[in-house]
Design goal:
Blueprint (H helix, E strand, L loop, with lengths): L4 H8 L4 E5 L5 E5 L2 E6 L14 E6 L4 H6 L7 E4 L3 E4 L15 E4 L12 H10 L5 E6 L8 H13 L4 E6 L3 H8 L3 E2 L9 H10 L3 E3 L9 H16 L3 E3 L15 H9 L4 H9 L11 E6 L9 H4 L4 E4 L3 E3 L3
Parallel strand pairs: 3-4, 4-5, 6-7, 6-8, 8-9, 9-10, 10-11, 11-12
Antiparallel strand pairs: 1-2, 1-15, 2-13, 13-14
Helix pairs in contact: 1-9, 3-4, 4-5
């Protein structure tokens, strides 16, 4: 029974605990705080994130000046990439949702600081505004992409600054381009092709991390199936998966997205593995402090029940909860 603390931890992971809220007496389950690892804050109302169960976010494409000015507002904790680094005329330049401030066109592969349009210049700009990661755009379906040498230069400079590189890789061969250049994280599970076992094994061996964003393909069954199969293979091979929704892309719930959770479940990332993907603090090493995810009501007893149950998740101060499973 899920009311057995040991059974609950078997189902949801080692940090799951039966608890109640001190003021209201509401009973439920506490989990580690969740992070959405792919959002665009300029396209959403972030005030609803905590109430919807999200304690941290990673903004993967925004105005670096605006992001730096927002300061530390507590919860949600925000990490960000700053602007997209892209080829001249490349994605997302010219897109209606993408103001000019959120893209930097790289015209020179130079790794020397201060070169106009240079790789190092763009990386250093994002770093100077507090970026925790660097975002490169590789979307051959939407225009020109960074050539291998320029992408490698971005990765080299970012590594020297201690910053991981995330790539939007869309179009034939783009995941391979990212992997060959040493990109650390894919912003989306590959969705324009089946990447195959050899690619997956190489990605896992290289320590590459994939952000899920499965639910954005609801209107494209081919892309949805590519992504599901690719992520299932990656996870089964030992790959590290992060929960992410691309929040701001289309009409999505601000908070835990049940569609994304259900899609992860269909890809075989279930139970404790699902909670681990949602609670991974990347790019930080520690979770958002002083809070946890609380899900009220009767705990689930089966894996099939978890996705819908998480719809009720909210963020609460850790000190507000009294644990009942000791």
């Amino acid at each position: 029974m899920a009311h057995d603390p040991e059974a609950l931890r078997d189902l949801l992971g080692p940090e799951a605990a039966l608890c109640r809220r001190a003021i209201t007496g509401e009973q439920g389950v506490s989990l580690p705080p969740f992070t959405d690892h792919h959002v665009h804050l300029h396209l959403i109302d972030e005030r609803a994130l905590a109430a919807g169960g999200i304690a941290g976010v990673v903004d993967l494409g925004g105005d670096p000046v605006a992001l730096a000015r927002r300061g530390d507002h507590g919860i949600p904790r925000v990490a960000y990439a700053g602007a997209f680094l892209t080829a001249v005329g490349g994605y997302p330049v010219g897109r209606g949702w993408a103001p000019p401030e959120i893209a930097r066109e790289i015209a020179d592969a130079s790794t020397h600081p201060g070169v106009p349009g240079g790789a190092a210049t763009a990386v250093d700009e994002q770093a100077s505004f507090g970026a925790s990661v660097i975002k490169a755009a590789l979307n051959s379906a939407a225009g020109p992409v960074l050539d291998p040498g320029t992408l490698a230069a971005i990765v080299e400079v970012a590594r020297e600054r201690g910053l991981p590189v995330v790539a939007h890789s869309e179009g034939d061969g783009m995941p391979q381009l990212a992997l060959d250049a040493g990109v650390d994280v894919l912003a989306h599970t590959p969705f324009t092709e089946f990447v195959g076992r050899a690619f997956t094994a190489h990605a896992v061996k290289a320590g590459q991390v994939w952000i899920s964003t499965l639910a954005i393909h609801g209107a494209d069954p081919h892309a949805a199936e590519f992504a599901r199969v690719n992520l299932a293979g990656f996870a089964a091979a030992g790959g590290r998966v992060l929960y992410g929704t691309d929040l701001g892309n289309g009409d999505q719930r601000v908070g835990v997205n049940p569609d994304e959770v259900a899609a992860l479940d269909r890809a075989g990332i279930r139970g404790a593995a699902l909670i681990a993907a949602m609670a991974d603090p990347w790019p930080f090493t520690d979770p958002p402090p002083g809070v946890c995810t609380f899900v009220p009501g009767t705990p689930p007893t089966e894996l099939d029940d978890i996705a819908e149950w998480l719809r009720g998740a909210t963020v609460v101060p850790t000190e507000e909860l009294i644990h009942d499973d000791h």
